[in-house]
Amino acid sequence: MRIAMGITYNGQAYQGWQSQLSGITVQDHLEAALSRFAASPISTNCAGRTDAGVHGLMQVVHFDSPVARAEASWVRGTNTFLPKDIAVQWVRTVPDDFHSRACATSRRYGYALLQSPVRPSVEAGRVGWVYQPLDLEPMQRAVQYLLGEHDFSSFRAAGCQAKSPVKTLYAIHIARSTQRPSASRDGMPSCYWRFDFQGSAFLHHMIRNIMGCLVVIGQGAQPPEWMLEVLNARSRKVAAPTFSPDGLYFLGPQYDPRWGLPTEAISFDWFA
């Protein structure tokens, strides 16, 4: 019996998704919980790996179960053995040819960013942070150069294991919070920003490296056209430093409707 499962997690306490010898990863905790519930070893495949500190609002995994359980039982039973910052949201029985990674038609990420002269406190670990104000229009112009199929070597981490740096970005959306920016005592405005990315797949650190460049452009240190120069250079050396993982959220994969899988989790309402 092949099972598909939707997972949400706060990534602050973990060394990323993928299993490591330390055991301090989301996959390690999930597989341990599944194995305890099923009373049999279970290994999982995921739709997209996330880095240390990155959060997941709709990670999708699949595994072949050695036992039969009701879908609701998989949710409640697995959650019993999981830490409080990881939770199974839904379970579906799927055909044997379903694969959480290979069947995904695209993947979505979101980045939450606090613009403020004061560092985050309540939101620490859940949002990125910039001190200087950002300008929306230059950033919107800059992302247009990234849409479509490109070689994203300039935004690729040195340790990336992807077979090819060529990926396709379908959409990038940038929005400032609709609430009126609040002014601090020194007169600098504070507000939240949200960046949404949808693409075929993403390289290691690709979004965090794009975010680093967008912040540089949004703060006026480089013009929007600089993004095209960075892209065409195909060299990590010319891009901005890798931005913080704190505000990065894996919003999940998208699948053909024939699989009958949910497209969102309740945590999406919180992120919105």
From TrEMBL:
Residues that bind substrate: Y109
Alphabetized UniProt keyword annotations: Isomerase, tRNA processing
Superkingdom, taxonomy of origin: Bacteria
Catalytic activity: uridine(38/39/40) in tRNA = pseudouridine(38/39/40) in tRNA
One term of GO molecular function: tRNA pseudouridine(38-40) synthase activity
Residues forming the catalytic site: D51 (nucleophile)
Classification via SUPFAM superfamilies: Pseudouridine synthase (SSF55120)
CDD domains in the cross-refs: PseudoU_synth_EcTruA
NCBIfam families, alphabetized: hisT_truA
Subunit details: Homodimer.
Example GO biological process: tRNA pseudouridine synthesis
Enzyme class: isomerase
Reported function: Formation of pseudouridine at positions 38, 39 and 40 in the anticodon stem and loop of transfer RNAs.
Record gene name: truA
Family in the record: Belongs to the tRNA pseudouridine synthase TruA family.
InterPro entries per the UniProt record, alphabetical: PsdUridine_synth_cat_dom_sf, PsdUridine_synth_TruA, PsdUridine_synth_TruA_a/b_dom, PsdUridine_synth_TruA_C, TruA/RsuA/RluB/E/F_N
Lineage: Bacteria, Pseudomonadati, Pseudomonadota, Betaproteobacteria, Burkholderiales
Listed name of the protein: tRNA pseudouridine synthase A
Signal peptide residue numbers: none
UniProt organism field: Comamonas piscis
Domain Pseudouridine synthase I TruA alpha/beta per the UniProt entry, residue ranges: 8-100, 142-256
E.C. number(s) listed in UniProt: 5.4.99.12
